[in-house]
Structure formats: structure tokens, C-alpha cells
User: Which sequence fits this backbone?
């Protein structure tokens, strides 16, 4: 059946705090329309209902946001770390206090199940809490001098205005993971959320104002056409840092645009994660780990298991276990309790999944379960397991970004490590084995920024998140994350005797 719009209340009706549903840009502490007056609809991917309209901003609005952030920078960066930490702590507490409403907004505009959406809000709040504390630990150094009458000191200072471009698949956590360390370090922020999911960003902006973030310190510009806004972010001389999460293609473009003013960049780009099940693995644990890392957010994550390698000795058994588990997954309206899979984000995402599955089947793959558009219609695709996958299939080289688990058979450890590394990407990798020696060998051999050994859920604010090769530059989260937003300054004091 097809979901009917009439089955859903309006988003505003469902919210306990209706003022969290903001539909204007946040610039210099004020809620503003786009200079053009144009609007951009926000659509629920589960039922095509229009949730809201936000400004379809352009270069003029982006410039206003950058200039507001630049004006606010001296006062914000001059605060003590403890003073900034107190504001961030209040923001963290407000996010947690409103997690139900924030989760509802997120699930409605993005399509992930409500429980998963609330989980993202809580996870994202953790970054604000972490960096509120970490701001007080941005230490410098005193270097032993080479001349007796000199003192050599190193201090860390805020980079300046930090521009951020965030994706639709984690519209809350990707903001806090960037804005948390930036604000903690003393930077001011200009943010462009994804066109499909701006409401989560605006709700976070509302709570930031309530927490006492000063005018101009945290600015949000929504748009339907990201290129003009992105050009301002990458070329305006007042912007000294760009942080981007998205495709490798767009990341390369933004990086090249930043070269003109030699901005500091952080890029979290595409992935092609391998998930390896060795024949000595705990198969129940491997199954649980794969279900979590493959089907979370309907497979729409950059660290999702994209290529699944299973050793020959356990291939048939694991394929059967996985197929049974996937066939039992519940797909539907993400606001319905118990739903495990929501819709894909838009028509282009659905068509891409269909094309990749069609290509695999044409080249000899076999459908174990799923494989087609869901009977709900719309943007729903059945959770799918494919076997008989070979390296010449497109889904081995392109991110699926959908609920499709493609299984490849392998024989030997060296063979599968070579296959796992045979990609220009290097974000995450996973494997299951109870052999301690193999655990160390394979973890060190995988060419990725993050490895899960007998674990599928590796993301946490406590650890550095990021990739190597064409999966990006820099790290987010952990003590390393705040280093992306500070500059190292050396001061030489002479004439001290």
C-alpha cells in the first residue's frame, strides 16, 4: 500500500515546544528571511508531505552571516575557556531536555526511525558536552631555550570564522560534532545545513540562543542551491576554516576553492567500508555488528558496510543467518514504534540503489531476500541481501547508500586484505575474528582511518573520527577534534636575564 499524507499530523502539532520549528535563517542573533524573499520546501521523505518552508538563501545571505561571525569573533575568542564552556554546557543540557522534540523533527525531515533519531540527538549532544570540557585543556608549551636570555612559548589560538557544510544523513550530530569544538576553541561559526534537512539545524540554533550563545557567534543559512553559499564560504577572506562532510566529488571542489585564500580545511568524505567475517569469528556477534552498521539509517551512512567479505568456510551459514534477520526487519513510517527501516532520502537515492542492484543482478548476483522497491511504494526499498557478488560490479566501487548487503566469498586473509584496500577510499573498516594475532595484523594492514575489530558501532565523541586517502582530511571528536580549530603560535621573549 502507499502511505497517505492524511495519516500524519502536522509536525508542529506533534511538538511539545512549537518554537523549535524555526523557518528562518539565524544571522547575527536574529531570525531573518532570505534577501530574495524566496522559500524552499522541506519534505517528509516518508509521505511527501511538506513540513515547512525555509529561506532559499543566496550569496548575499551567506555574506551577511560571515560578516556577523567576523564581528562577533573578537569578543567570543576573548572569553576564557571556562566562560565558553559554561555556555556550551547549557546548550548541551537544553539539547538533552528537548531530545524528544528534536528527534521528532529529525525523523520527520530525514526519515530514520524515531528511536534512532532521538539516539542521534543524544549522541550529538555528547560532542557539545565533550568539547565544553575539552576547551579547558587546549594547552600550549614552554620550550627550553637555546639562549639564556630568551624564553620560548607556544600558545593555541582560535583559527577565526569557521564555515561548516553538513549532510542530510545525520542532520543533528554532524552539526554538533563540528560546532562543538569550533565554539569551544573560540571560533565563530557560519553553517549551511543540507537542503533536505535544515529544520534540525534551525532547532539547534534556537537552543543555542537560549543557552546564551551571543549574537553572531552561531549563524545558520539555509538554501535550495548550495553553490553560491558554498562559494562565499570558500572565498570570503574572513573565513579561515572550512569543515565539510559529504561526497568526495564536492569535497575536492570546495578544497580547490579554499586554495585561493589558503583556508584550513577538514573534509569527511565518501567511504567504501569493508566488513570481513573470518571463519574463526563469533558469527552471532558478527551478524549483530553487521545489522547495526549496514542497516542503521536505512544504509545511508558514510561508515556503512559497503563490501561484505565472508570466508568460504562459514559463507553459506552466515548468508543464511543474515538473510533470515534481514527478511524480518520492519519497514514503514519512521514515527511508528518498532519500525527499523524508513525511506530513502529522495528519488535520486532510490534510483541509485535500484541501478546498483540491477547492475549486480545483470552480472550474476543472486537475491537472497529483498531486492525490489517496497510494497509501501514511495521512497521505501526492501532491506536486501545479495550473494554471488564479484569485484566487477558497480556496488563494489560506489557507495550504495541504501539497505543492501552484498556478500562476497573469500579464501585467505592476504587475499581479503588486498581486496579491502583496493579502493581510493579509506574511512572505516570492520572485521570479526577471535585470533589475537590476526586481529592485530589485519587492523594494522587495513588502509582506513578507523577500524572496528569485533565491533560494528565505533562512533563516539571520545575517539577521533576521520579517514585517509580520498575519504578526507582531519579528525572530528576526541582531543584531536579541537586541534582542527586552533592555530599554533610561537612567541619568543628576549632580553630576559
Assistant:
Amino acid at each position: 500500500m502507499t502511505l497517505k499524507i492524511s495519516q500524519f499530523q502536522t509536525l508542529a502539532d506533534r511538538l511539545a515546544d512549537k518554537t523549535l520549528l524555526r523557518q528562518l535563517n539565524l544571522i547575527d542573533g536574529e531570525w531573518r528571511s532570505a534577501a530574495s524573499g524566496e522559500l524552499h520546501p522541506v519534505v517528509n521523505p516518508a509521505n511527501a508531505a511538506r513540513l515547512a518552508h525555509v529561506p532559499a538563501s543566496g550569496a548575499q545571505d551567506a555574506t551577511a552571516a560571515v560578516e556577523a561571525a567576523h564581528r562577533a569573533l573578537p569578543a567570543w575568542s576573548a572569553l576564557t575557556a571556562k566562560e565558553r564552556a559554561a555556555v556550551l554546557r547549557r546548550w548541551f543540557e537544553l539539547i538533552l531536555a528537548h531530545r524528544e522534540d528534536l528527534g521528532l523533527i529529525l525523523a520527520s525531515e530525514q526519515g530514520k526511525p524515531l528511536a534512532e533519531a532521538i539516539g542521534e540527538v543524544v549522541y550529538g549532544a555528547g560532542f557539545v558536552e565533550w568539547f565544553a570540557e575539552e576547551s579547558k585543556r587546549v594547552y600550549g608549551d614552554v620550550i627550553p631555550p637555546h639562549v639564556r636570555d630568551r624564553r620560548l612559548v607556544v600558545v593555541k589560538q582560535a583559527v577565526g570564522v569557521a564555515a561548516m557544510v553538513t549532510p542530510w544523513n545525520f542532520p543533528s550530530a554532524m552539526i554538533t560534532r563540528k560546532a562543538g569544538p569550533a565554539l569551544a576553541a573560540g571560533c565563530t561559526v557560519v553553517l549551511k545545513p543540507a537542503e533536505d534537512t535544515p529544520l534540525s539545524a534551525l532547532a539547534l540554533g534556537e537552543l543555542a540562543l537560549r543557552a546564551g550563545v551571543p549574537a553572531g557567534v552561531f549563524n545558520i543559512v539555509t538554501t535550495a542551491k548550495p553553490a553560491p553559499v558554498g562559494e562565499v564560504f570558500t572565498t570570503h577572506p574572513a573565513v579561515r576554516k572550512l569543515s565539510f562532510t559529504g561526497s568526495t566529488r564536492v569535497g575536492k571542489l570546495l578544497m580547490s576553492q579554499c586554495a585561493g585564500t589558503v583556508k584550513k580545511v577538514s573534509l569527511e568524505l565518501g567511504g567504501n567500508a569493508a566488513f570481513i567475517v573470518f571463519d574463526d569469528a563469533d558469527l552471532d556477534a558478527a551478524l549483530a555488528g553487521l545489522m547495526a552498521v549496514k542497516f542503521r539509517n536505512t544504509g545511508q551512512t558514510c561508515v556503512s558496510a559497503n563490501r561484505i567479505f565472508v570466508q568460504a568456510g562459514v559463507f553459506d551459514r552466515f548468508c543464511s543467518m543474515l538473510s533470515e534477520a534481514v527478511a524480518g526487519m520492519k519497514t514503514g513510517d519512521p514515527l511508528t514504534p518498532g519500525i527499523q527501516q524508513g525511506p530513502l532520502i529522495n528519488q535520486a537515492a532510490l534510483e541509485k540503489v535500484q541501478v546498483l542492484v540491477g547492475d549486480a543482478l545483470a552480472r550474476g548476483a543472486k537475491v537472497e531476500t529483498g531486492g525490489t522497491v517496497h510494497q509501501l511504494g514511495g521512497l521505501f526499498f526492501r532491506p536486501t541481501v545479495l550473494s554471488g557478488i564479484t569485484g566487477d560490479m558497480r556496488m563494489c566501487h560506489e557507495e550504495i547508500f541504501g539497505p543492501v548487503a552484498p556478500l562476497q566469498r573469500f579464501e585467505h586473509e592476504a587475499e581479503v586484505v588486498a581486496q579491502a584496500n583496493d579502493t581510493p577510499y579509506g574511512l572505516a573498516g570492520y572485521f570479526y575474528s577471535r585470533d589475537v594475532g590476526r586481529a592485530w595484523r589485519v587492523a594494522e594492514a587495513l588502509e582506513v582511518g578507523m577500524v572496528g575489530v569485533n565491533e560494528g558501532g565505533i562512533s563516539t565523541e571520545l575517539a577521533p573520527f576521520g579517514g585517509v586517502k580520498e575519504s578526507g582530511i582531519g579528525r572530528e571528536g576526541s582531543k584531536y577534534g579541537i586541534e582542527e580549530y586552533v592555530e599554533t603560535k610561537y612567541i619568543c621573549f628576549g632580553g630576559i636575564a
